[in-house]
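hey
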């Protein structure tokens, strides 16, 4: 294991293109607790030192991989309405969850056993993912679409939590009617009337 070190240099695109899918594969296969840069490097024929050079430690690599995954399916489309944006967010999340990789990755993030380091990693991971989708709520607030006192994190969770729970407990694909129902309930809870 390499010591944790902060690296702020940009990761070359070719290295990132090889490491990100490998990291997501390892997370899906082993979860956060058993994620190891050494195992990732060996299984995917990558240079361990290169990974440490650009990411510094497993925590930064896990968070970066999860953020790359979130950005790959997130929507920042501005439909012009809170209801439309919530539906777009639900559909985007469902599209990712409905893939084998998306569902497997989501399930790998569930905490198997408590651990201080891994709990901190998960918090960093969810904060990074939250930053990707919070634009929907921020835009609605700027347009005056939200009722007073709406907590941004709770608002995002109104849409994403039911989708994530369904993915954790079922292999049934999430259909558009379910996305519409979730977005409609969230809209009723959040909208200025």
């Amino acid at each position: 294991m390499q010591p944790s070190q902060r690296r702020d240099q940009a990761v070359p695109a070719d290295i990132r293109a090889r490491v990100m899918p490998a990291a997501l594969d390892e997370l899906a296969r082993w979860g956060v607790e058993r994620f190891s840069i050494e195992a990732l490097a060996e299984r995917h024929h990558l240079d361990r030192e290169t990974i440490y050079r650009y990411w510094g430690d497993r925590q930064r690599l896990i968070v970066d991989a999860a953020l790359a995954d979130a950005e790959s399916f997130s929507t920042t489309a501005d439909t012009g309405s809170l209801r439309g944006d919530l539906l777009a967010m639900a559909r985007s999340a469902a599209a990712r969850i409905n893939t084998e990789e998306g569902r497997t990755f989501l399930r790998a993030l569930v905490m198997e056993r408590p651990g201080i380091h891994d709990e901190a990693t998960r918090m960093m991971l969810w904060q990074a993912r939250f930053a990707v989708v919070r634009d929907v709520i921020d835009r609605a607030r700027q347009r005056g679409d939200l009722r007073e006192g709406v907590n941004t994190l709770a608002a995002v969770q109104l849409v994403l939590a039911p989708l994530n729970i369904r993915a954790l407990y079922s292999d049934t694909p999430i259909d558009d009617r379910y996305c519409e129902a979730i977005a409609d309930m969230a809209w009723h809870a959040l909208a200025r009337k």
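The two ends are 55 Å apart (CA to CA). Residues 13-67 form a domain with the Arc Repressor Mutant, subunit A fold (CATH 1.10.10.60).
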